[in-house]
User: Fold these one by one.
Assistant:
Number 1:
Amino acid sequence: MKALHSSSSKGPVKFRISRPTRENLVPIRLDIELEEQRYKDAFTWNPTDPDSEITIFAKRTVKDLKLPPPFMMHIVQSIQTQLAEFRSYEGQDMLYTGDKIVPIKLDLRVNNTLIKDQFLWDMNNFDSDPEDFAKTFCDDLGIQDPEVGPAVAFAIREQLYETAVQSVAAAREIRMSKKGRRSAEYVPASKAGGTSLDLMKLFNNKYSVVRKRKDWDVYGPMVDLLSNEEVDALEAREERNARSMI
């Protein structure tokens, strides 16, 4: 088994999410509705790929799913916007708090498979790989649907990305707060330190990999296989809820 190494440097930590040494994949979500047709998808994208790959992907998606031609432009624009947001954080300092053990929660339905679970993830351990974890997760639980593994890995990467972005915002807030104090400018603590305080509370929680007995049920995976009728009813309810929010 490969030994896992955690970062222990106390210098500025630059923006990064899991596994930058191999592929620093960006979670991409698409939800596009045109001409009474809706296209939803979630996948990861390598930000080092040339932008021409986005157009190729969009053309292939529209062709394979027989979507109206206007979908192609919207798919390209949505992916480009999300990649641009990711790239805007690259090279920026993240909030350093020592250990960064964060809880990851799964609440997914992939086709007929319903999954709920929560576990801890060491954000300082860049040898941890969401795709490897998802494969082992599915193997251990006997999940045979090949679409479940990528969905689990995506959910992990999306939460790690959100935490990393919050960490950049928190580091920026702290810098601005210090600059404000040096300039004798008044900055309300509720605004200047909101994100940083929330992250400090999260990172400073003394999580342990050894679970107390009362937590065993909370930190145990739940996998349920739904019938086609249950899936149809669930999708109808989700569609009604989505339309009611518009």
Number 2:
Amino acid sequence: MDVWHQICCCSCEQEEPENNPLLSEMLRYFDQLGKRKRAQATNLWNEPVDDTHMERDDDRELYNLLQNRARLRRGSEGYRRLSFDISAHRQIRHKLKDRWRQILEVLGFSGEAHGLLDITSAASYSSLSQPLQARQLLAALADQTSLFDRHCSLPERYLFVLDRLLVLDAGDDFLSAARHYYPPEAEEGPSSEEEPPSPEATLVTLSPAPQGGEEEEEATVMDEVSLLVKLIE
């Protein structure tokens, strides 16, 4: 009987860490943090430092669409219509990111492209190594190439990418390549025979269809929204 009692006690002691409230809270925190990062990668906020997504018109529009969809019944007509609008916003952002990735690959940064383009809400302007030069380079890209939509303000997320390229002494090379593949007169995209793969073709595999994966996307977005206040605090 004593042996059996000792076995039971040992078993209970081994299970105690799983029931530890602090450990459970930590696991929940890191799980939500991972979901939030995946949501950021999906939405590609143009002002990543703004956790409220209210500073820019385009970020605010996408955020409001996500909020409105979260209030609707999944599968309803309104839900599907908002999913289509959300997907359209995301496609534009992913198309731009694909263009940047292709230029980086042309410059020999195939292995580093993902890390260079990975900008999250953890970024801060104070962390920029060469903010003035990065800002000037961003303006030059807007004036001398067709990378960006001229009717919208420049996405701040790419200021951080350019700062990283400047540290690698590759800022001017990126501008030269962007001029070559996306000249101002080529609004529809690259026209050179040496052009990188078509961004539209890349989007077929990178961008989710409005109907597919809605459950996971909505769960991720809702986790992000519910976590914003907690993480800021």
